[in-house]
Design brief:
This protein is α+β, with helices and mostly antiparallel strands. The chain is built from 15 helices and six strands. The longest helix is centred in the middle third of the chain and has 15 residues. The protein binds a DNA duplex through α6, α8 and α12.
Length: 343
DNA sequence: AGCCAGGCTTGGT
DNA sequence: ACCAAGCATGGC
C-alpha cells in the first residue's frame, strides 16, 4: 500500500478520490517525511522550477505542476486531471527512505555538518534527455545563467502547455466527466486550466515542455546560439542528432554497469566525466555516481583536506572510496552545504 | 598542454 | 554609470 493521500476533486459538490477509485483529480498530497522541497528544487539538479507564492511551479514531462510543501508531505496541483500519479512520485522520489540512505554515509564531522544543515535534501529522478541536455548546457555556467538558457530553449523549441489537457482532449460540451467543468472558451478539444496558478506571472518559464531531441536536431546552430548557449550550441546539436537518428539509445545506459554507462554517455559530444556523472545520478539513478564541480571540489578540499595540496584526481579517488553506495546523495549534501551554508 | 568559448554577476571606482 | 575579473568544463 502506498503512503499516499488522495484529495477530493471539487466538481460541483461531487467528491472523488483519485487512484483508489481510479478516477482523475487535479491535485494530490504525497505523504512523505524528511523532504525539503525548496532545498531539493534549488540545489542545482533541476533548472526550471520557480518559487512563486510559497509554492513551486514547473513542468514534468507534459504536466504543468505546482508543488507546495505541506505538513504531511508535498501537495501537487496539475493543469489537467490525472489518473495515475506515478510519474510524480518517480520524479520526486518520495518513496525513497532517506534515513536509510543517510545511515550509509560516513560518520565524520564534515558529513555530519552537511547533513545537519540540509535536512530533507533529496536527489530527484529526471528524464534522461532533459537531464542530459540541461547538463550539456551547464558547462562553465552559473546556475542563474543555466536557468536562463534553458528557459529560452523551452520557449522557442518546446511545446506550449498553456491550455494543455493531459491525456486525451476533452470535448467542450456537454459535460459529463469530472475535472472538465469549465465552459467552452472557443478552443475546441481543450479545457481551460483548473487552477488560478496556471495563469499569469507565476508560470512564466513553466509553460512549455522541454524540447525533444528531434526538435533540437532539426534546429540551426545559430538558432540555438540565439538562446545564449554559446559554444555549447554545437554540443547540444550534435548530441540531439546522435539521439534523434538512433545512433545513441538513451535507454542503453540504464542497463549497463556504472562504469560502462558512464563511458557510453561520454560518447556524446559535449559530455565529459562530470556531466556524465550528473546524468548517471540525476536521471538513471546510479546512486554512487559522484559529480565533482567547483562547489563540491571546494567542499572536499576545505572539509577533508584543509591546508593540504591535493590534486583533483586524488579528490576523485577519495570520493570514490569514502562515501559509500549512496555517494551521489552525499555529494548533493556537500554541494548544497558548501553553496548555501558556508562562508 | 594551454588556450578558447557566452554572458551574467560581483566588486571596485 | 562603467569596466574588469571571476566563473567553470570540454575540445582541439
Amino acid at each position: 500500500m502506498r503512503s499516499v493521500k488522495c484529495e477530493a476533486v471539487k466538481t460541483g459538490g461531487e467528491s472523488t478520490t483519485a487512484e483508489i477509485a481510479g478516477a482523475a483529480s487535479t491535485s494530490i498530497v504525497l505523504s512523505v517525511r524528511d523532504y525539503d522541497l525548496a532545498a531539493t528544487l534549488d540545489s542545482g539538479q533541476v533548472f526550471r522550477w520557480q518559487e512563486h507564492q510559497s509554492g513551486w511551479n514547473g513542468v514534468i514531462g507534459k504536466h504543468r505542476v505546482r508543488l507546495i510543501q505541506v505538513r504531511d508531505g508535498i501537495r501537487a496541483e496539475t493543469a489537467g486531471p490525472v489518473e495515475n500519479w506515478d510519474w510524480l512520485r518517480d520524479f520526486l522520489q518520495t518513496e525513497v527512505d532517506l534515513a536509510a540512505i543517510l545511515s550509509t554515509f560516513p560518520d565524520d564531522p564534515p558529513m555530519r555538518a552537511a547533513v545537519g544543515a540540509c535536512h530533507g535534501l533529496r536527489v530527484l529522478r529526471q528524464d534522461p534527455w532533459e537531464c542530459l541536455a540541461s547538463f550539456i548546457l551547464s558547462s562553465t555556467k552559473q546556475i542563474v545563467q543555466i536557468r536562463q538558457i534553458i528557459s529560452l530553449l523551452c520557449e522557442r523549441f518546446g511545446e506550449p502547455l498553456i491550455w494543455h489537457q493531459v491525456g486525451r482532449a476533452v470535448p467542450c460540451a456537454p459535460r459529463t466527466t469530472p475535472g472538465s467543468q469549465q465552459p467552452c472558451d472557443g478552443a475546441h478539444g481543450v479545457t481551460r486550466p483548473a487552477m488560478k496558478f496556471l495563469e499569469g506571472e507565476g508560470m512564466k518559464g513553466a509553460q512549455f515542455s522541454f524540447p525533444t531531441p528531434q526538435k533540437i536536431a532539426a534546429a540551426a546552430e545559430s538558432e540555438l546560439r540565439a538562446c545564449k548557449m554559446g559554444f555549447r550550441a554545437p554540443h547540444l546539436l550534435a548530441a540531439a542528432r546522435q539521439i534523434a537518428d538512433g545512433q545513441f539509445d538513451l535507454e542503453r545506459p540504464r542497463q549497463l554497469p556504472p562504469a560502462e554507462a558512464r563511458a557510453e554517455l561520454m560518447k556524446l559530444r559535449g559530455v565529459g566525466g562530470k556531466i556524465a556523472d550528473c546524468v548517471l545520478l540525476f536521471a538513471y539513478g546510479f546512486d554512487a555516481a559522484f559529480p565533482v564541480d567547483v562547489w563540491v571540489e571546494r567542499a572536499l578540499r576545505q572539509l577533508y583536506f584543509p591546508r593540504r595540496r591535493v590534486t583533483l584526481k586524488r579528490l576523485h579517488q577519495f570520493a570514490a572510496t569514502h562515501f559509500g553506495p549512496h555517494a551521489g546523495c552525499a555529494q548533493q549534501y556537500l554541494f548544497h552545504y558548501r553553496r548555501t551554508k558556508m562562508k
